[in-house]
Amino acid sequence: MHSCSNVLGQAIRYALISGTAGLVALPAFAQDSKPTTLDRIEITGSRIRQVDVETAQPVFAISRADIEQQGFSSVADILQNVTAMGSPAISRANALTAGENAGGTYIDMRNLGAQRTLVLVNGKRLGISTSGYQDVSSLPVSAVERIEVLKDGASAIYGSDAMAGVINIITRTNVSGVTANVYHGQYSQGDGARDRFDVVAGWSNDRISLTLSAEHSEEKEVWAKDRWFSAYGISDRHPADSSNWTTISQFGQITGLVGGPGCKDAKGCNYSLDRGKDPTNPANYHLTDATPFTGDVSNANEQMHVNYPLKRDSVYFDGRFKLTDSINFKTELGYNERTSRRQIAGYPLQSSTAGVGPMSVDSYFNPFGNQHGYANPTAVAWNRRAWEVPRVTTSELKTYRAVASFDGSFDLGERYFDWEVGYQYNRNELESVATGNLHKGRVAAAVGPSFYNAATGKVECGTPGAPVANCTPWNPLVAYGTVDPNGLTGNATLLDWLFPAELTKGKTTSKNFFANIAGNVVTLPGGDMGFAFGVESRKEAGEYRPDPLAQTGATTNLAAGPTGGDYRVNEAYLELNVPVLANLPGARELSFNAATRYSDYDTFGDTLNSKFGFKWKPFDQLLVRGTWAEGFRAPTINDLYGGGSETFAQFSDPCDVQFGSSRTSQEVRQRCARDIANADTFRQLKQGMTPVTTATDATPVPFVSGSDPALTPETSVSKTLGLVWSPSFINNLNVSLDWWKIRIENTIVADSPTQILIDCYEQGIASRCARFTRDPNSGIVNTLKFANRNSGFMQTEGYDLDVSYRLDTSYGKFSSSWATTYVSENIYRSTNDSKTVPTPTNGIGSGFRIRSNLSLGWDLENFGVSWTTRYYSGVKEQCPSIKLYPEECSDPGVYAPWYKGARNYNERGSVAFHDVQVRYKLPWDATVSVGANNVFEKYGPVMYSKPNSAFSYYGGYDIGRLVYMKYQQRF
């Protein structure tokens, strides 16, 4: 058997095993030591174990030492700060997120979507939700030995979802002794406290290795009202802007009353109760005052989380047993319990759109009804935000993971082979309890006919001659904070009756049988030709069952149908590593790698995906590498079998004459006129049925999202080409530069109301116009259904630059690493119409062109210091309002071929966050560390487009200075 142990390869292996490489891409630093015989190891992206671990594809390693030198307390936070990561659509910064995935943390490589990044644990898939999301918060950070990030497609090796890249989280093993850690941190504002306690214990000898990790982690909430960017809808720059306030408030409101006191509008006027006055007296009402702060208004952000609280309890066990000299048994057992509690403002109930109807003319609470002397009794429409009962969703997710396998090795002649066979089981169990939504039928009864019963001294439902049992009357015109027998404040009986709790349950299971064999078959001029062959049989099953009240639409909760289904896939793969030349002038190494994987699904059929790569070393200090890979993503259970659900989607209407493309495009205006009678003056309406004041706002009526069982897989082609340079004249300096390009066809598009309307009115695609209707009077979109669909493509391209350097001196060890990702292109097209110009997202919203991290370290005996700078380049977004805020509109009147008319853009500046840590090793085998993430308390720019957030701020930016302390004790 031929073993090629070169200097560069030995250095890389040392970096992986010792954990001293820093946040650098592989290959890592070269060393001057003499080559030695090394064991074969498996690197993410290949199933072939080998000595030379530099590979054709770029792999980025985060060691245990790197993890401990950061102030982040979760696997998700660590990964999210890798420069190749994009912006996850579901995050803790978006408390409005609903459904089974809310509360989890997900990783999105290359801004291609979290479902296109595959997460592995020790080379095996992490469990998924019915939507295909893999929650990395289910893993305790204390159990992690290192993390390898493959920045390349790998469906030929790992199957579905490995399109943007692969994250392989490798857990700790062969631990001896006990290590305990205590972590506490909080923001300098005094909120968002983070606590973590973990213990890792291990025992091993030459035949057994047992490792147990246990961790408790808790993160407290941060309220939107306590940050400048989230205190108001468009931040504290414009607190008095009308978009921050709504008259659907805690004070109650009568709407559209024709001929009321002081009303001069033929369409009717809105009225609110004078503070502290009798709500049944029509003389005690005034025309609703919409003045910010002092009027009859509320600011919903006052009751919302900008970061919701999260608690995790985890146990992870790794056992390895050497049964014979050539046969081993391995097992992994994991349990995680995650609890999150998300709060948003009390429900803004509008009787005219919620399906509860007006307050009856025979209601005792109707001041303009027939019981209080009003001249023209009438039923009245009304609004009321349930400020007394904010909407809270408490989600508890239990995750179980078990892997059992036998592995070993054998010789056949002079050939060496590794084999593995085993079984993997994952199960996620979700229970979610939602409170704060009103029961529509009970509300209708509570504001229906009622009367004052003098005998009981109470208002009762019905009429004196026909009282209604099992009904509690409610006066929604009684303001928050007013103690009234028929108001919400302090009225437990009424609250329990109107606000029933809703229980949602979900479960997913993954079962996977696998068998692999790897070895070498023939010796070539460049070394041994290696191979790996394997088979897998995997079944994914899942269900998500909303509460019956939600399924039937009985409450104001977003209606949702049940999801349930399963699929099975049988797969086989083959990988070859062909070393052609070695140790020749101009070809110190030349090798090729090829892999192919056949997958047979019982849903859509079969697919074959292949990958090719090469490595060339013209001389020892330079490596040239490249890959070409096919990939695919199979439709998820939710894609195929998901029940429809209601959502108050944020969207932009192109027909709006102030913010839409109808403002500047006559072509769009003409198309709008086909559906809207007043197209020349049409305004999009937000909740409260008032015109929007920004380009994007929530619909006042719920839209419906659903599934499509006819979906087929996405397909992709990814390419990389790179250089790795480790010059001999500068010890421990390493530079790598990789170009990458990924194109995804037949995309399963997360369709959106905005895109449907753009396709209809700007692109003129008639089939898209059939997905919605408009109100014949107001012209607003009053019904719209959107679902995932196969259509269009996504394409992104860019460069990764990684530089690392170490210097050992008598003054200590100095280290530095610089990782930068530059995105030169990121475009998409959501239709198969080739005449439609692709839309770029690069440099817009959360599409950062450049993300860059610089890490510096100094260690002297027992003392150490780390400094990290995290940089985000500037972006642009559409202006909030060129009329109201022209100073926040740097680029007005911009024309582009991918949209009609002109748009107004505003440049948002770049931002850099700085982290510092100081640590000291104590004499009793302990280490204490203190530090601060975002030590200068820097904030990103305000972003009114609310990218990945419910607020005017990018959801991935730091929200304050986090000061922390860690104590580690080894026994």
Number of helices: 11
Outline type: globular
Alpha-carbon Rg, integer: 31 Å
Helix content: under 10%
Instruction: Give the CA-CA distance, first to last residue.
Output: 42 Å
- The SS-based structural class is mainly beta
Instruction: Please describe the biggest sheet, giving its number of strands, its sense, and whether it closes into a barrel.
Output: 22 strands, antiparallel, barrel
Poorly predicted parts: 1-38
Quaternary state of the chains: single chain
- Strand content is over 45%
Q: Tell me the number of strands.
A: 52
The overall pLDDT, averaged over residues, is 91
Quick structural overview:
By secondary structure, the protein is mainly beta. It is built from 11 helices and 52 strands. Mean pLDDT is 91; it is low at 1-38.
Description:
It is built from eleven helices and 52 strands. It is mostly beta strands. It has a 22-stranded antiparallel barrel. It has a six-stranded mixed beta sheet with strand order 1-2-5-6-3-4. Strands 13-12-11-18-17 form a five-stranded antiparallel beta sheet, with no helix packed on it. Strand 48 and strand 49 (about 900-910) form a beta hairpin. The chain is globular, with a radius of gyration of 31 Å. The two termini are about 40 Å apart.
